């Protein structure tokens, strides 16, 4: 008479949900290290940043793991390790921040080897860039204010931010951008404060001349990208520098692709400026805004040191800081 209990056991096992795989040990170490690093450095860079929700969706080849949320969205199951899991839906090379499940914005990111970061230390610093987008998106009425720019032209997906028809290939725009870029780099390269002032003033004049070339919507888009992505790259560089003396956990330092935070932080500002120096506006297109906006952040640190206190009060433009500067 043991057939019935066996049948019942088989039926019970068939009715039980099939457990999804858990996050790998290495991925778990990386994700935990991101939150540990952010907790140590974020307030040094942007006071008040520490109170920003930071949910993260890790995209692996087969699954997606959501962590730092109070409640799992529909379609996720409990992975049993503080995260929730579902079958993969996003590309494995994804690295973006948006309200994937409604506010707050979620960092959606692939594992290091599948993204442009390639290894663990750059991946953590890149996550600080994405985490800064969470701070931007957490500002009052952030998404409504983006809509009010009037640049989407009916696109409700947000893809207009990537595909906006900015005149990157227009010859006069390219020439003026190169001139502007060169003056910005020259000002940043000058270490002597007295010689820096006239170089900064020249830059401000050229900046106004460049913007006069642009149609009103193009100017709004350029400013939006500098404010959004450029200052996120600036924050990424500042995070790399702040992390230069960060002591990682033994588990993170033992990862096979671990590299020194000190070495990475020491070189990242210069590599960003080198990226800007080599940028071809017609080819790089919106990617040029990342290094250019970061460089403008570095410039503001020198002649308008309190600019970050007012940054969120002037959404989607840095004009306010350059126009009121006494450097001209």
Explain what you see.
By secondary structure, the chain is α+β, with helices and mostly antiparallel strands. It has 2 domains: 19-137, no CATH class; 142-323, no CATH class. It is built from 13 helices and 6 strands. It has helices at 3-15, 25-45, 120-137, 142-148, 160-163, 171-189, 193-212, 216-242, 250-253, 261-277, 281-284, 288-303, 319-323; strands at 56-59, 63-67, 77-78, 83-87, 95-98, 106-110. Strands 3-4-2-1-6-5 form a 6-stranded mixed sheet, with helices on one face. A hairpin with a 7-residue loop joins strand 5 (95-98) and strand 6 (106-110). Helix 6 (171-189) runs antiparallel to helix 7 (193-212), helix 6 packs across helix 12 (288-303) and helix 8 (216-242) runs antiparallel to helix 10 (261-277). 34% of the residues are buried.
Write the layout of secondary structure elements.
Blueprint: H1 3-15, H2 25-45, E1 56-59, E2 63-67, E3 77-78, E4 83-87, E5 95-98, E6 106-110, H3 120-137, H4 142-148, H5 160-163, H6 171-189, H7 193-212, H8 216-242, H9 250-253, H10 261-277, H11 281-284, H12 288-303, H13 319-323
Parallel strand pairs: 1-6
Antiparallel strand pairs: 1-2, 2-4, 3-4, 5-6
């Amino acid at each position: 008479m043991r057939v019935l209990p066996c049948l019942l056991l088989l039926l019970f096992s068939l009715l039980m949900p099939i457990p999804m795989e858990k996050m790998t040990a290495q991925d778990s170490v990386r994700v935990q290290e991101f939150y540990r690093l952010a907790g140590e450095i974020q307030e040094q860079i942007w006071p008040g940043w520490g109170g920003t929700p930071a949910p993260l969706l890790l995209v692996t080849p087969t699954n997606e793991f959501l962590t730092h949320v109070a409640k799992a969205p529909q379609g996720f199951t409990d992975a049993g390790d503080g995260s929730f899991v579902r079958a993969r839906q996003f590309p494995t090379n994804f690295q973006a921040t948006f309200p994937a499940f409604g506010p707050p914005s979620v960092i959606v990111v692939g594992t290091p080897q599948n993204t442009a970061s390639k290894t663990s230390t750059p991946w953590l610093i890149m996550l600080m860039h994405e985490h800064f987008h969470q701070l931007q998106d957490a500002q009052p009425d952030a998404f409504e204010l983006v809509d009010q720019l009037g640049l989407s032209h009916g696109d409700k997906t947000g893809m207009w931010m990537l595909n906006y028809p900015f005149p990157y290939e227009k010859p006069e725009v390219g020439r003026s951008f190169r001139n502007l870029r060169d003056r910005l780099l020259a000002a940043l390269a000058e270490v002597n404060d007295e010689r820096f002032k006239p170089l900064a003033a020249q830059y401000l004049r050229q900046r106004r001349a460049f913007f006069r070339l642009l149609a009103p919507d193009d100017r709004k888009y350029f400013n939006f990208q500098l404010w959004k992505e450029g200052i996120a790259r600036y924050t990424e560089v500042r995070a790399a520098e702040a992390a230069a003396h960060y002591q990682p956990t033994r588990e993170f330092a033992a990862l096979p692709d671990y590299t020194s935070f000190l070495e990475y932080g020491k070189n990242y500002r210069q590599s960003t400026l080198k990226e800007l120096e080599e940028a071809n506006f017609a080819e790089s297109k919106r990617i040029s805004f990342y290094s250019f906006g970061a460089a403008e952040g570095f410039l503001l640190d020198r002649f308008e040191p309190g600019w970050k206190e007012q940054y969120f009060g002037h959404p989607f433009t840095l004009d306010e800081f350059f126009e009121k500067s006494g450097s001209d």
